[in-house]
Amino acid sequence: MISIVVGLIALAVALTLSSAIGKAPAGTQRMQEIAGYIHEGAMAFLYREYKALSVFVIVVAIVISMFLSPLTAVCFVAGAVFSVSAGYIGMTVATKANVRTAEAARHGMPEALKIAFSGGAVMGLGVVGLGIVGVAAAYMLFGNIDIVTGFGLGASSIALFARVGGGIYTKAADVGADLVGKVEEGLPEDDPRNPATIADNVGDNVGDVAGMGADLFESYVGAIISAITLGAVAYPGGEGVMFVFELAFAGIIASLIGVAYARSSKSNNPQAALNHGTYVGGIIVIAAAYYLSTSIFGNAAAFVAIASGLIVGLLIGKITEIYTSADYSSVKKIAQQSETGPATTIISGLAVGMYSTFLPMIFICIGVILSFFSMGGAKDAGMGLFGIALAAVGMLSTTGLTVAVDAYGPIADNAGGIAEMSELPPEVREITDTLDSVGNTTAAIGKGFAIGSAALTALALFSAYAHTVGLKAIDLLNPVTLIGLFVGATLPFVFGAMTMESVGKAAYQMIEEVRRQFHEIPGLLEGKAKADYQKCVDISTAAALHEMIMPGVIAIVAPLLMGFLFGTEALGGMIGGALASGVLVAILMANAGGAWDNAKKFVEASGRKHTPVHDATVVGDTVGDPFKDTSGPAMNILIKLMTIVALVFAPVLAANGGILLSFFK
Questions:
Q1: Which of 21, 158, 319, 402 is at 20 to 30 A from 331, Cα to Cα?
Q2: Which residues of the chain are under the pLDDT cut of 50?
């Protein structure tokens, strides 16, 4: 009940912030016109995406009702609806906050930061508020964790489609705008003459607000569900479940305080303001974890597990910053390599991405060891697994703040685009560019945080699956298990190839359309005619909706096929293989893409725009766009969705799995 109340408070604060943003000045008529195009494009995409997904939700709900129970299907639908609601709330506010941030930038940095961060905070508080209310209400109503897992499946399913669809949309527009507008025609960023500009700005919201929010919503929900599943086993008296919910609402309170602290900052340094808010939230969670651990369990073991998860998340974020920020050597090295052409740009960027996998994996391993053994895993594996689940909850406890800091980025980016297209004074664009630059760093850190949380959440869900089907160990000498391992390790590569190819197809259509408009609309390049923005928006929307279907279906069908054909142990091997390779591929893609992007910005900042070096970095950034904003982030959801599908259908698979093996026997 307290969790539900705290969740409702978070939603009330989000509503208050949204109302305050709506009352802020929206600028000139031209600014409002451009913002209207962005808002209409974003809402049109969401409407068509959710309309298509409603069919999927109904079909899967019927399947769950037939094979499991109607109550699990109800939870599944609720999880999907809550995930959709989080995306809708975030998108609506972000497309209102962008123009108001641009207007606020006319009055100084603190005012612009306050509006942009408030817009991100609505998304963040909406995610945690809906997440905790949904899980707590489902658990209170049904009291059966097997039924509550349906809520997590609903959240994960929508998250995958939102991430993949949003990623395809935004990168098709971005690639089209960059290759034709910037490279071929030499137009600046966000030039109103570029037909793909509005679609590009819409894509920032579709991919980096709605998609990212859905991603962390399902991470947050999945971590709580896996923790209460394992907590109920470790502590049959109910202390474990109570501890998880109390930790979750303590994290929400910490996020509320951190948001208030960051919003009240009068600093002209947006990075410092956001960092201070994040640190305040983290310190409060650590203090609350110590108090709850000692008061409920009588020792600090759970506190160590939670702190290890939170610290690992922060460290992965820092490592991500080191490999993707222009303040460090990796990005500068890519910029230097670009002096010899785009081929060396690609080679050096891939090398950076590969190197960047090592330290995050080491930190994840350290977090797993500390959380497992701190809870007494050496004597009781069940307690150790609960410790790993607590590490995931600890890492995600300040999700409200993490999402707020991340969603602020695309709002600032849109504000810069609106300022450019509205021909506002240069000092306004300087402020929005500073906010956007900080947003690129926070987005990269957010992606690293999402990857780390995905690894721990998937591991915790996997532990819950193993407990449900009675797996004590997975035998790698068993050829059937090895089949599962190899197939699972392959899936992230196939999934990544499908999503990259989808971006390529959509970008091809966009490039052709932008070229057509430049050639067929008289006076467009001279600024004497208006581009057909709606046509480019339609291309991105149609391509994203069409191309997102197959990757989503594979993520759900593959684990079910493996379980039914080869049994629960083979499915365990499959999840293990997908988890290991998926995390590595996600880190590689996210960090290589971020490094290429900032190498381009580093060259631009040094005054070398429209030179061969700059052209080479634009090619690198174009390759990196689907890496960091489509395929890489979707890997997180792939591994979690496969794991929670296995967990939800575990009772059926345990009773009916291994059909093909039975045939051979």
A1: 402
A2: none
What's the rounded Cα separation, in Å, for the pair 399 and 277? Answer: 13
Write the secondary structure of 362-420 as one string of H (helix), E (strand) and C (coil). HHHHHHHHHHHHHCCCCCCHHHHHHHHHHHHHHHHCCHHHHHHHHHHHHHHHHHHHHHH
pLDDT in tens, 356-379: 999 999 998 898 899 888 887 667
Beta-carbon neighbour count of residue 270 at 10 Å?
Answer: 26
pLDDT at 349: 92
3-class SS at 69? Answer: coil
| Backbone torsion region of residue 633, taken as left when φ is above 0, otherwise alpha when ψ lies between -120 and 50, otherwise beta | alpha
Residue showing tokens 């959509």: 506
Report d(CA 653, CA 469) in Å as an integer.
Answer: 8
Identity of the amino acid at 69: S
pLDDT tens, position by position, 144-170: 887 888 888 888 888 878 777 877 877
The per-residue pLDDT for 239 is 84
Percent of the chain having pLDDT more than 90? 8
Residue ranges of the alpha helices (H) in 105-211? 109-142, 145-176, 197-205
Which residue carries 């006319």 as its tokens?
A: 106
Distance of CA 413 to the CA centre of its chain: 17
Half-sphere exposure (Cβ direction) of 631: Cα atoms closer than 13 Å: 29
11/1 Cα distance (integer angstroms): 15
End-to-end CA distance of the chain: 52
- Orientation of helix 612-626 relative to helix 479-520, angle to 10°: 130
Q: Which residues of 411-428 are buried (b: 16+ CB within 10 A; e: fewer)?
A: bbbbbbbbbbbbebeeeb
338-362 tens-digit pLDDT: 889 889 999 999 999 999 999 999 9
435 contacts: CB under 8 Å, gap ≥ 6: 101, 105, 109, 112, 113, 116, 270, 408, 412, 415, 416
Q: What angle do CA 603, 608, 614 make, to 5 degrees?
A: 60
Dihedral of CA atoms 363, 500, 618, 412 in degrees, nearest 10, equals -70
- What does the radius of gyration of the chain's CA atoms come to, in whole angstroms? 24
Q: Is residue 157 within 8 Å of residue 56, measured between CB atoms?
A: yes
Is residue 440 within 8 A of residue 597, CB to CB? The reply is yes
At 484-496, the pLDDT tens digits run: 999 999 999 988 8
